[in-house]
Design brief:
This protein is α/β, with parallel strands linked by helices and 396 residues long. It has 13 helices and 15 strands. The protein has a 7-stranded mixed β-sheet, with helices on both faces. A 4-stranded antiparallel β-sheet has the order 11-12-15-14, with helices on one face. It has a two-stranded parallel sheet with strand order 1-13. The structure holds pyridoxal-5'-phosphate (PLP).
Amino acid sequence: MMSELSFDFDTPIDRRTLPGDKWGRYAGRDVLPLWVADMDFAAPPGVIEALQRRVAHGVFGYTAPWPELVAAVTDGLARDHGWHIEADWLVWLPGVVTGFNLACQIAGAAGDDVFSATPVYPPFLTAPGNAGRRLVSSVLKPDADRWGWDRAAVEATLTPRTRLLMLCNPHNPVGRVFDRAELAWLADLAERHDLLICSDEIHCGLVLDPDTPHIPIASLDEATARRTITLMAPSKTWNVPALYCAFAVIPDADLRRRYRRAMRGVVPPPNVLGMVATEAAYRDGGTWRAALLDYLRGNRARVAEAVARMPGLSMLPPQATYLAWIDCRGADLADPAGFFEAAGVGLSDGTPFGTPGFVRLNFGCPRAILDEALVRMARALEARTPRETPTTPGTP
Ligand SMILES: Cc1ncc(COP(=O)(O)O)c(C=O)c1O
């Protein structure tokens, strides 16, 4: 494995010279943006070279996915996750959010229920409503060292009209890589309640702990595969989200037909440059990914150490992703994201994820930026006036 020194993740790339959501939100202000889930790193050299070769050709006609692209993905899933899929299970999409909105549309009928646990990536919570379905949800619960399922609460939340279980694995924002026992429990739950499963596995290339490998839920057994739509993309792992290329893996032919029917006339295929990047990333992006994960492990440790020293803040370190989910409830801040933004750090507010009182910090950035952001956060907490200092419950 090549060391992290072989790629430069340390030198900041000035993203303010181009339009872009992450840095654009704070244009002209001294706020370090650690919010939206993209990284401040250049894509792997092999991906950039493949794009440059394709752009140099100069003709950008309609292009359906080609055999080498399909092979790069099917080989990649077998190599990286031990999941052997058939090429014709793939349904190409411009994005994963599109993919789970489609799943809501084909699950049951208008007025039926869709289950999702919170906190979760906010578009999970709006997708059911977009499709005329009702969201039912219960809360993930933390124990001493990790977030997990409150099984009784999930069972109690499911209604006779629940038709779809939406799963995020690895999980944004809590960073869990659900283990085989948890996935088997979810698969059994889906079987007992006859639920479709839509599993968003967009973060599966970003598992930080080698001893907790990602397991696609559809790889558990054939029965689970038949009821599952798995969504994946190169966008998070290789940092190419605005190239808009993703795919669903749908082993069951009937389910795949219903899914494709919902797409007809509405959902375009991916952009050709996105597909070029996808082929290069899945085929040749392994060395860069290994180096990235090394770097992210270092960043995760810095965040965990810094947060542990911040009064009133706590977090359970993520097993995957470059996202830290920080509990600010002990700091007694009326608006945690607003407080840190005023201190010069732009974080994601927990409220749209379904749990106020938390913030999400994106540590997919050079250490110099991360360290400065952590210093700003600590200083702001220490500099609070006595009225803003957290109180211990029970003390006057
Ligand atoms: C869990 C999850 N799903 C989907 C997306 C976005 O996917 P896409 O850009 O392919 O629609 C994100 C982006 O942060 C995400 O974290």
